[in-house]
Amino acid sequence: MPLIPEEPQIHEKAQGPRATPASGRTAPTPRPVPGPRPAAPPRPGRPGPVRPAPPAQRATRDTAATPGPSGPAAPAAPEATSAAPQIQLIPATPDGALDAAEEAVDLLLDSGRTPGDVLVITTGELHPWAAHELSFGDAAYWAQHDAGDDVFYTDATVADRAASRAVVVVALNGGPEAAAVTALTAAHCRAGALLIVCGDPQRINSVLGAGV
Question: Is the pLDDT of residue 97 over 80?
């Protein structure tokens, strides 16, 4: 059945508690501070400035359960991966698909999704973040994927190496038809709850109907 284009219906959550100024307290006289103020840190989940060296991979925590005196610990509940993810289509041209994907990521993060929940797959030109991180080497690039604490951007040609995440965003920003089939197939298999596809609706329906 053809998909009907729609905007991502991501509900915004309320902001955190605001700091309340103390009452009855006299503020000290401000003094001039020499030098310019430091720049604000980059927003979580978004590409930051050029770094001198790639970050080290985080150590994997030992999650093995220890049997108690009353018997072995109950096994952890399996992740619910059997249900098909919800699919949302964002109409976009090949030149605008990457921008549409970035806007979708912004909405996801603003609505409360953690950066590690999101995987972005491109079919044409690499996302600037992926191109920058790959300049440090393939091992460092995939170490950030394994850390799982940030939005990860990858290409359709290597998307099969990416692990499943709650939300997968696909940007059909060019490339051959085979790249679109590969990206959408990999994304559909790896999206736990939501699959967002940015591109030409007719092409997406054709690929999803034939390749997924």
Answer: yes
* Residue 95 β-bridge partners: none
Q: What is the mean pLDDT of residues 183-205?
A: 93
Maximum Cα–Cα distance across the chain: 70
Model confidence, pTM: 0.63
SS (H, E, C) 158-211: HHHHCCCEEEEEEECCCCCHHHHHHHHHHHHHHEEEEEEEEECHHHHHHHHHHH
| Contact partners, residue 21, CB within 8 Å, separation at least 6 | none
Under 8 Å CB-to-CB from 123, ≥6 apart: which residues?
155, 156, 170, 171, 172, 173, 174, 175, 179, 180, 183
pLDDT band with cut points at 50, 70 and 90 for residue 9: low
> Mean pLDDT throughout 183-190?
94
Sole residue written with tokens 């790896």: 190
43-to-22, 110, 169 alpha-carbon distances in Å? 29, 11, 19
